[in-house]
Write a structure and sequence with these properties.
The protein is globular. The protein has 11 helices and 6 strands. It has one domain. Strand 4 and strand 5 form a beta hairpin. The longest helix has about 50 residues. The chain has about 325 residues and is mainly α.
Length: about 325
Amino acid sequence: MPLIVRNSSKVVYTPNGVEGVVIQFLANGNRMQLLKRVWKVTWRILVFLAVWTILSAPAIVPVIRKYVPHGGALPLWLRLYIEIVSVVSILVAAWVMVRFIDRRLFVSLGFAQGHAFRDSLIGLIIGLGMMTTCVALLYVCGWAKPEASAAFSGSVLTIAALAMIANTFTQEIMVRGYVQQTIQGEFGAVRGVIISAAFFLALHLGAIQGAILPGVSLFAAGILLGTAYAVSGNLWLPIALHFGWNFLQGPVVGGTVSGQALDAGWRLFHLAGPPLMTGGDFGIEGGLIAIIVTILGTPLVILLYRRRGENELIHG
């Protein structure tokens, strides 16, 4: 029978014998189930990334070595080529996984057509609006000064936009469409958002080079984009939001995007304020202003989609 120990303040119940063995067995069983679920998620994500790498690397690495042997900024045509190869290969890798491993429809990644136009429009407005807010605040504070730049080129901007769209699709299919959804299926929407945001940050570790604020900014962006995916149930919202933010910051304004030069050959503003606020070499999104705007974007997205009754993030 169980051992009961009494003292002046409480009674301590300590199981022993058969009951203790059963409780220990159940505890071990729960841990094993958790490990199995973690492994189920982990190996799927690793295989997905391996398939994508196998498909994309042979078409990208030799070309970079040939045309940019010593590193540095990529010419616009090469950026477009790399992004097209990346998005095609990520689509094929995702199809392979959902078709042969997960055994579900490809559209289940987040490509349902039901609200595609509406969610794309909302995402684009939010992304453009957030970056416009950042630039406006920097301008008002005197940290973003208008700059005379090279002549505007519609064709160059179009190519830059196409490269940016392809890049955004690649990132969102990878991080939200497959990684977040795989985690979410086993551990729920909240954990899916948080862990995928950490994965999104990990993808950019080479760009932030240990800097704290850019890391915080990218994690906050991961939370925002993951929330957009979770509350909308599709990729159209986070893709459009992500594209709007990056496109305005890079090709249109001419700023650095996540530490990379993704401009279209001109610059509308020169950042001349404290790096703490402007983001310094990392770009606007690495500054405190952009971090605050990004953090505020998450509750905005939740409020806009609060009426969807099936939403786990909103309704618990």
